[in-house]
Amino acid sequence: MSFTAVRIAIGRALLVFGILALLFIPYVLWGTGIVAAQHQAALRQQFEAARRHAGVATPPATPPHPTGPPRVAPPTPDPAVGSPVGQLSIPALGLTTVVVEGTSEAQLQMGPGHYPGTPLPGQAGNAAIAGHRTTYLHPFYSLDHLRPGDPVTVVTLQGTFTYRVTGSQVVAPDDVSPVAPTPTPELTLTTCTPLYSASERLVVHATLTASILAGAAVPGSTTTPSTTPSVASAGRSRPPATAAGLAGGTGSWLPALVWGLVLLALAGAVAALARGRSRRARVATCLAGAAVGLVVLFYFYGAVTPLLPASF
Question: How far apart are the first and last CA of the chain?
Fold first, then answer.
């Protein structure tokens, strides 16, 4: 092969790489929203089905007003990873979303994730939730807009719990102190900061101010909501959160490699089929290959995105 041929091949490869990189940007910012929306629809159906099965009444349209010290829900086993925990509402941000159990990238693609090892929202102690800031419907995009006093409501199978924001801080990604146990019932929300960066973590703290306990216990639990557990007993029932910092986990390279090879094989097949044909036949072959290629590219990008820092 001549030097000219090698130079042309390298130039074409760089051109293709550049096009793929440019297409990846809109996928990350908007295409991931399609994936998250599908997951949210499924999680919402699962949560509503679980509420009906547990006989939990529909939560009130407005957050409950404090009528005394809020009651906390009893400690229960964590839900299965990937299953719905409850519905999170932040009126100041116009946000209503379903929280999923787990904070690895697979769960954060579905929606905000509850840190395993921390209490569930509404229970005694520090319930912690992480969420994406710029991808997968970016639920925590405007988390920095929250101010002290803003309400945050979480509806779970154990009831409706309203928190009030008390403050925020910025910490390093490996600092797990924001999700450490607390003597009072609190809610901690974490995401990446600044925008379009994963160099630090924005942490918002909120304190439980009002609660309406459900009239039925969580399935699988033998404790009724009328029981008010101590913070100590709630802490003993759960291991401490041991996530690798506040970043969650990242995905595997294997799916990205497999879809990348499929994409290369498709490109090779289209090139082979188009070679030696008439111009019209080549155009038709390339158009058909492009249509299939866009589908494969979508899945390829979907496999590459989890390799980015979690909560990005």
Answer: 44
